[in-house]
Amino acid sequence: MPIEVLHNKKNKKDLLLDLKNEEFQRVTLSFYKYVSLDNLEFLRDELYKQWNTLQVLGRAYIAYEGINAQVSIPEQNIKKFKKIISSMNNFNQVIFKTALNSELSFLKLTIKIKKEIVAYKIHKSEYDMNNIGNHLNYKEFNDAIENGAIVIDMRNYYEGEIGKFENAIIPDIDRSEELLPEIKKILTNHKNDKILMYCTGGIRCEKASSYLIKNGFKDVNQLKGGIIQYANDIKKNKEQSKFIGKNFVFDNRMGERVTEDIISNCHLCNSRSDHHINCKNEHCHILLIQCDKCLKQYNGCCSNQCKEFVKLPKEEQKIIFKTGEIKFNAQKSSKIKPKLSQLT
Q: Which of 199, 266, 294, 301 is catalytic?
């Protein structure tokens, strides 16, 4: 009997066509939970089978410490999906967060086993998930900002570049494993002050808040449900948002607009823009902010070098890349900002 293959085998073109032909609306949801899990291979397969039956698309990571998922669900299947998740002993009381818009967020379903659901790569002795920061709702968070609390962004630099809370500290990092040591360093002289942490959906603040508490910080707080929940609550309650700009998301949308403010610039011409793209050259694929004019001028690439390279036949591209004759922007540095400074 053949082994069932639990992954998508269609190419991107066919996946896009499938989505275009759908006669229903999709809603993008996210959820996470730190909880002890075992038998991960079995759990992964069961989740894939159940979710695939409901035509769920998206990405989920499971580890011995829990689950982290962002999914696109047919509107008519949302209740069934939530019931399946909530009926599982490990995932009861999960809080689902709804995206501000759900336009083409995911093309396929992927469920992967990971060592961590957020790759901080810190030793277990450096945190205790039974002791985490206080969860503040949108109003409590706003009030704390107004009362002068220290606000720190628990995301990568390029996320905070297009949207952030007023007066937030944006750590100069682009990898999760660099974040916790960096924030501890930044906040060294503030162990007795009120600290406010925020991230996209809340998950990055969970272990981070525990880490700070373990390191002697006395008043650690985090935004309940992250920017996603905050944006929904602000809209629902007709309150003024203290988050300005766009919320970066790790799917095909690459961002959700929270306010009309554009706080960043095109990395090529420095004009006002907060539109992220990945360079069309698959051997570069650098993430950058690009305005409409430069998008057209460089044909979806980050530079003239990449623009000319993608015109070559695929086989010729592979040969040139393997020989190392050309070094693209994404290969020049492990840091986002130095890469961008080299763009020409």
A: 199
294 is a catalytic site residue: no
Task: Compute the Cα dihedral for 210, 211, 217, 219 and give only its sign.
Answer: negative
DSSP for residue 251:
S
Asked whether residue 217 is assigned to any structural domain, the reply reads yes
- Is residue 266 in some structural domain? no
pLDDT tens-digit map of 104-114 = 899 999 999 99
Q: Kindly tell me the burial class for residue 19, based on how many C-beta atoms sit within 10 Å of its own C-beta (0-12, 13-18, 19 or more).
A: middle
Name the average pLDDT for the chain: 91
Domain that holds residue 87: 12-113
**Dihedrals φ, ψ of 276, to 5°?**
-85, 145
Total of domains in the chain = 3
Alpha-carbon span 38 to 75, nearest angstrom = 31
pTM of whole model > 0.85?
yes
Structure tokens at 259: 């306010």
